[in-house]
Amino acid sequence: MSITNRFLNSFVKNVIDKPEGFITSDETRSTQALNATKELYDLGKKEERNNPILKQDNESIIKNNPFFKLIIDNCDNEQIWAEINLQNKPFLNYVTSQLNEEKDRHPELDDKFFELSEFNKTTEENENFEDSDDEIDYFADPDDLSDSDEMNANDIKYSDFFDPPKKKEKFRRKSSKLYERSMNKEKGVVDLLEESEDDDDFLNNKVRDLFARDEKDDDDEQKSSFQKRQERIKNQIEQFETENVAEKDWTLVGEASSKDRPINSLLEENLEFDHIVKPVPEITEQFTEKLEDIIKRRILDETFDDVERKRDPNFRPFLPSKLVEISDEKSKKSLAEIYEEDYVKQTTKDMKNEKDEALKKEHKEIENMFKDLCHKLDALSNFHYTPKPPKPEITVISDLPAISMEEVIPVNVSDAKLLAPEEVYDKKKGEIKGETEKDSTEKKRARVAKKRAKKREKLLKEREKKVIEKINPGLGNKHSKQKILDSLIGQKNVTIIDKDGTQKSAIRHVVDVKSTSLKL
Asked: Membrane-spanning regions, if any (predicted)?
């Protein structure tokens, strides 16, 4: 202890006598400060472990801090400060809790058997306690309840009404004294006096509230929970109404000029606004130096020409021809035609705009008008009239090959053989069906059509006979010969000789036809 005291006294004396040493960095002084810190830390931890009272009260501090000695070798300042904080933080929490307990104690009423704060707490709990209907057993025996509620006087103990008295050790007094000394060093005597006055005021208010609460409780007991809730809502409504009726701040009124708001009140608000004009650069020393450097560089480079004007790249001249003319007339095209035109333009890549087409049309009209004007001027400038130039005639030229290729088919072969059956015969209407697939109506229709065809052929043959008889009357035609032959057949004593010389009877033999050989 003597070595430690001697070392600390020399260090403190050196600091007091030569405070100017802290202005400049000194390694010897920093090592001395580290060693003094280590000595004080190690001494405190040693006393903490050896003293049983300190060890009992600071058991949580010892658990949180694993270092029994301060380690400064190969450690920077932040690491050393972190080691000290492991001891300081839990110790400060412990000391403040002890002081708060001492502060809450009443100097006259509180003793080791009675505390005013606990008494107030228990009375408030008993007053606020209300028996619920669920806890009452309406079917229980009243005699049993009375017997159970009665308590034996011999079983009553002190612990049933009071908490056990708190143990006070000597360390509590020592710790409070150490804390008071540290507070005196940091805050001074004035802070301690203010704290003592605050403590007295706090205790006086507590005692005053203890007696005033009884009067309030009498009024509250007469009111139901619904009435209390209604009072709370009413107070809240009154608060909102006063806020609405009260004069609003100038920030909530709207546009406020300098006369409507207090002086310099705009500086307290966070505003966002845009500048219309480009801000003027501040003339600072750096700005002037920059200008001087530019002037010097231009003098050295001998560039005394003026600044060249540059065109605005975004500037576009006003062209009335580029304006779009919006027509008020209803479109004559349907929506399908418009979609069709858009599709054709996209597929054929012929993106013609109506505005461009109208512009081309106007250009063409201007060119024609200019040509007419030039022609008239040419005619007036000469003595004789100059006729108009010939207009180009439109002729259609068919691009046919000069040589036609001959086909392989011979000339004497008709083209009819090359035709398909569909090209020669007319196509039959309706579905093609077989004999077994046709029904009675279809069969009847086919028979009628067949009869009509035969009748038509018979009429054509008769017309042909009449025409031939008129042209070649007598036996010069085959029809007259056949007619005479038919008239001779069936007569007696008439024989017919063929070209081969065979004889045939002219009598017709009637053949019996059975019904089985006939078909419908």
From this structure: none
Report the alpha-carbon distance of residue 32 to residue 28 in Å, rounded.
6
61 Cβ contact list (under 8 Å, min separation 6)? 48, 87, 90, 91, 94
> Rg (Cα) of the chain, in Å, rounded?
67
Task: Locate 481 and state its tokens.
Answer: 């010969």
In the block, which residue shows the tokens 């043959």?
Answer: 461
Contact 58, 48 (CB under 8 A): yes
Whether residue 68 contacts residue 25, with contact meaning beta carbons closer than 8 Å, is answered with no
Q: C-alpha angle 138/140/143, rounded to 5°?
A: 125
Range of 138-147, 180-189, 427-436 with top mean pLDDT: 427-436
Q: How far apart are CA 495 and CA 502, in angstroms?
A: 10
Mean pLDDT computed over every residue of the chain? 72
What tokens appear for 509 in the block? 């033999």
| Alpha-carbon gap, residue 107 to 146, rounded angstroms | 42
State which amino acid sits at residue 386: T
Confidence of residue 57 (pLDDT cuts 50, 70, 90): low
DSSP string, 309-360: P---TT-----GGGSPPPP-SPPSS-HHHHHHHHHHHHHHT----HHHHHHH
**Which of 55-59, 176-180, 186-190, 514-518 shows the highest mean pLDDT?**
55-59
* Residue 44 and residue 72 in contact, taking contact as beta carbons nearer than 8 Å: no
pLDDT of the residue at 448:
94
Closest CA to 490 of 501, 504, 470, 502: 504
d(CA 496, CA 507): 10
At residue 309, the 3 state secondary structure works out as coil
Output the pTM of the full model. 0.23
- Say if CB 78 and CB 48 are below 8 A apart: no
Who contacts 24 (Cβ-Cβ below 8 Å, separation ≥6)?
none
C-alpha to C-alpha distance for 214 and 519, rounded to whole angstroms: 134
Residue 74 zone, left/alpha/beta (φ > 0; ψ -120 to 50; rest) = left
Is 496 in contact with 504 (CB distance < 8 Å)?
Answer: yes
Q: Do the Cβ atoms of 50 and 37 come closer than 8 Å?
A: no
Within its chain, how far is the Cα of 253 from the centroid? 36
**Two structure tokens written together for 295:** 């002037």
**What type of residue is 185?**
K
CA angle 286, 287, 290 (to 5 degrees): 85
